[in-house]
Amino acid sequence: MSSFLSVLSRLLYQLYETIIRGRNTFAYYKEYKGNQRLSAAEIDVLCFSKIKKLLIYCYKNIPYYQQEWDRLSIDVASFQSFKDIEKLPFLTKEIINNNYSDLKSPFYINDSYIKTTGGSSGVPLKFEFSRESNDRRTAVAWRGYEWAGACLGDKTLYLWGGNPTPVPLSGKIKDAIFNFVLRRKMLNSFDMREDNLDYYISSINKYKPKVIVAYTTPLFTLAEYIISHDIEIWNGVETVLSAAEALFPFQAEVIEKAFKANIHNTYGGREVMLMASECKARDGLHLTRDHLYLEVVSHEGVNLPTVQGEVVVTDLHNYAMPLIRYKNGDLATYGANSCSCELPFPILTAINGRVLATIKTKNGITLPGEYFPHLIKDFEDISAYQVVQDSLELIELRIKLKNGVENSNQVDLLKKIIQERLDNQVDVKLTYVKELEKTSIGKTLPVISRLIQ
Questions:
Q1: How far is residue 369's CA from residue 378's CA, in Å, rounded to a whole number?
Q2: Are 79 and 85 in contact (CB under 8 A)?
Q3: In degrees rounded to 5, what are phi and psi of residue 32?
Q4: Domain 1-87+95-280, what architecture?
Q5: What long-range pairs does 228-233 form, CB within 8 A, spacing at least 24?
Q6: How do residues 96-152 score in pLDDT, each as one tens digit?
């Protein structure tokens, strides 16, 4: 019965997308599925051909790129390999904000989608993308989720951020129909609190999903609650997908113990959506290289094959407002080997956090954001935390307690460890909170730096 409902869901959704909405999503999905049969070398050839076509288009039609590349005497028509891409300057949020009109194509005026990011790195961003890019983003996400065993039409529960603004009744009805057809249930992670966790657990037990897709932090919170209270949870979950926030190993261990299912990491960004996803082998996150070109680079812009560097991404199909070598503020590491599943796509072995999510001191100490979850996980009284740096002299450690009881010994020890790690160059201010600060799209960042970079 479940298999029949999955097939029916796919057919109804294909009818909606193709006939009613006139979208090419399923055609692109078929294309991307077919690309899985190519070799890694053929994927590279396909990717580079798309890049070169896009670059030539940008030089002819996008004023910002015309001016910049002429200024630097760059002839994109002469590019012969990925190495040539390193000649191109980076694109940043500040550049986009300051050159918005000059980055838009004249052929997509009033014919593009507009989105904004919440500015979790300190710089909000508005950007546009074409209809083709929109449809392809959906298609490539389906394929990426399938690598982990989560197929379109599977009964899926989303622990996701709800709409921050009121939704009219017509919109609620449309969403309800849409979710019914797609066999998915949406739980708003924005509303999650310590006193209503039982509601989320009962919703999972009643809905009985095959797949759970969730923001990492609320999923981890729920998993800890399930384990600590020895709660019976629906045991039919086969796949768990984490998204939107970093997934640390200790979190994955707790989530898998609670739900008795493997968790698979995904990596995406609002500007380009899904960039990489784990398959069932879990040897790394497969990059969607037939859809976008992701580089891991040094500060000088040189690609780093297996060393941590800054993420730079080029959307291969957004001709409305092309993002060429866009620095999204993340850190990642390319894998040296291919995955055992034999998919032809390169892998990332780690998503290492954000460039700005580091703590710095006057004397040059830089403490990566991933230091804190590994430290604080051993302090049992702390259920959640956030480190915020506004100046080189002071950081604020926001702590959410499990039982509401302050333990001065633990807190003093934690402050002492952090201060010593920073060579006593920074004061640590402790603040007890009931809820942690979130971005406008519901992300809870463990480390926030507001220093001017």
A1: 16
A2: yes
A3: -65, -40
A4: 3-Layer(aba) Sandwich (3.40)
A5: 231/201, 232/205, 233/201, 233/204, 233/205, 233/258, 233/259, 233/260
A6: 989 999 999 999 988 898 887 654 444 557 899 999 999 999 999 999 999 999 998
Q: Is 364 exposed, middle or buried (0-12, 13-18, 19+ CB in 10 A)?
A: exposed
**Where in the chain do CATH 3.40.50.12780 domains reside?**
1-87+95-280
Single pTM value for the model: 0.79
Specify the CATH superfamily of domain 358-449: ANL, C-terminal domain (3.30.300.30)
Residue 168 tokens, joined: 């009219």
Instruction: Please write the tens of the pLDDT for every residue from 271-296.
Output: 999 999 999 999 999 999 999 999 99
CATH 3.30.300.30-classified regions of the chain: 358-449
Q: Cβ distance 338 to 116 under 8 Å?
A: no
Angle between helices 63-71 and 40-61 (to 10 degrees): 100
Q: Which two tokens stand for residue 207?
A: 């809905």
Extract the tokens encoding 296. Answer: 């891991």
Detail the DSSP E strand segments found in 288-446: 292-297, 309-315, 326-334, 347-354, 358-360, 366-368, 382-391, 394-401, 427-432
The label of the residue with tokens 């982990």 reads 148
Q: How far apart are CA 74 and CA 60, in angstroms?
A: 13
